[in-house]
Amino acid sequence: MEPPGIDERINKGEIPRDYARRMALGKVASIRQKNIDSFVLGVDTVVACGRRVVDKANTRKQAEYCLKTLSGRSHKVISALVVGAPNGKWVERTVTTNVTFKRLQYLEINNYLDSAEWEGKAGGYGIQGLASAFVKKLNGSYTNVVGLPLHEVYTVLLGLGFHYLKQSGRDRSSGD
User: Fold this and answer.
1) Rounded CA gap, 23 and 107, in Å?
2) CA pair distance 18, 33, nearest whole angstrom
3) What pLDDT band is residue 163 in, cutting at 50, 70 and 90?
4) Phi-psi domain of 50 (left: phi exceeds 0; alpha: psi -120 through 50; beta: other)
5) What pLDDT is stored for residue 167 in this prediction?
6) I want to staple 144 with a disulfide (CB 3.0 to 4.6 A). Which of 72, 92, 101, 149 is the partner?
7) What are the structural domain ranges in the chain?
8) C-alpha angle with apex 124: 122 to 127, nearest 5 degrees?
């Protein structure tokens, strides 16, 4: 995995879906220059409350703000994915999952902050850990909320001709 080295600042007035798409496209464009004969995947996942992006939490204070913002509310987790294929074709998809948090108590927020699971996470939480207890309702892709919508990535790659398991008269996954 190569770091893309792109400017990740949100443009003034940019809505979450457009921001995620711009980031995913920028990642693929940056990495693709050096990997023209490879499949290149760029994904960006954002948490959105209404028309605004709830930033990644890099400090405890940011994570606390995120959790208080999401407490007792529904929000969207939006992932934009872009795949560049060796044949020059690019495919884009956007996946949106609706998540509803329970109303969080002061002690719950502080205990979660103490866990440090929030570090670097969009929206200040990771659903695959302790914050799963905060989720009252989820409508859509769980893996999208984790940060990589696996079903969509898989189907896009297959559609572009990428096959991780080639058949040659026997199933290679069985070890025969």
Assistant:
1) 35
2) 23
3) confident
4) left
5) 57
6) 149
7) 16-161
8) 80
Percentage of the chain with pLDDT > 90?
77
Longest Cα pair distance anywhere in the chain, in angstroms? Answer: 59
29 burial level (CB within 10 Å; 0-12, 13-18, 19+):
middle
Instruction: Give the three-state DSSP class for 64.
Output: helix
Beta bridge partners of 92: 82
CATH class assigned to 16-161: alpha beta
Q: What is d(CA 20, CA 128) in angstroms, rounded to the nearest whole number?
A: 21
> Per the residue annotation, which of 44, 114, 171, 176 is the catalytic one?
44
pLDDT in tens, 57-95: 999 999 999 999 999 999 999 999 999 999 989 999 999
Is 176 an annotated catalytic residue? no
Separation of alpha carbons 146 and 45, rounded Å: 9
- Tokens (6 digits) for 123: 């929206």
Single-letter amino acid code for the residue at 81: L
Q: How far apart are the first and last CA of the chain?
A: 31
